[in-house]
Amino acid sequence: MTVTDYFLPGSLSEALDLLGAHGPSLMVMAGGTVAMPLVNDGISLPGKVMGLRHAGLDDLREEGGGLYIGATVTLTRLLRQRAVPMLSEAARSTASWSVRNMATVGGNLFTPPPGGDVAVALLALDASVTLAGPAGTRVVPLGAFHTGFMTNVLQDGELLTGLRVPAVAGDTAYLKFGRKAANTPSVVTVAVRVARRGDTVTDARIALGAAGPHPLRAGAAERALVGSTLGPEVIEAVAAVAAEESQPFSDGVASEWYRRRMVRLFVTRALERIRQGGEGR
Ligand SMILES: Cc1cc2nc3c(=O)[nH]c(=O)nc-3n(C[C@H](O)[C@H](O)[C@H](O)COP(=O)(O)OP(=O)(O)OC[C@H]3O[C@@H](n4cnc5c(N)ncnc54)[C@H](O)[C@@H]3O)c2cc1C
Known about the structure:
alpha+beta; Uridine Diphospho-n-acetylenolpyruvylglucosamine Reductase, domain 2; Uridine Diphospho-n-acetylenolpyruvylglucosamine Reductase, domain 3; Enolase-like, domain 1; 5-stranded antiparallel β-sheet; 4-stranded antiparallel β-sheet; 10 helices; 14 strands; binds flavin-adenine dinucleotide
């Protein structure tokens, strides 16, 4: 164990001051379900750790038809909210009760592949993230937050303070496929949102997890869907486009080959579910 100092700031400004004073050598920890095993296994050897539990970032409230989610809101609390059913379903599909009681929504954005199952739903819901640092606060669309494998736009001295889910239109479907029924890493995760006028699709989001270096949108598949009628042939064609543009990888959970096929199958299933009524927003 290398940790000699543990800080537990009581406010965001105190947390930012600590980060400014100690720099990148200060490990930020929210629920600790990703960070703590790295320390315990000696993969990460921080001298100083800052916990965010008491920093006042745990507000969860309905806002203008949407939802504000503080960065340290736990997945258990997200599961229990009723305003956005897809987020409840995404939280339920993540880990186990004991992990969800600790794990935070903010931390889910930093989870290495194949993780980040909640982030996939947030992406389909057009969520944005709020980042605070010495230069002030900025808002970034979640789709622009991740930049590559374990990289993102967060700068030194900044913290993620919360997420906003706007009031978006459409029906949704969320499907996570793992090797077990529950408490399992993702082979592929699919979150879909489709808005229609009459039979015609007017807007679409198809977000994929475990199918790239970070949660990503299948933009070509979305464009193929907009303007069409959600029927079996369209669904099949759109799912094929999503599989083609996904960027799956091989790991101990599944091979790249298998993941690409599962993207196609689970995008098909998600769109089929929406065709048959969806799950609400
Ligand atoms: C047994 C087990 C099963 C799991 N199963 C799943 C699963 O099925 N699906 C899934 O998606 N995940 C899974 N996870 C991963 C993890 O539990 C979740 O992704 C969780 O949401 C991570 O949140 P956390 O608060 O614990 O992150 P932490 O471990 O606290 O943080 C991880 C890192 O994120 C950064 N960070 C966190 N919060 C902030 C912030 N506010 N500002 C700046 N940086 C920040 C820090 O660099 C930190 O070191 C599992 C973990 C375990 C241990």
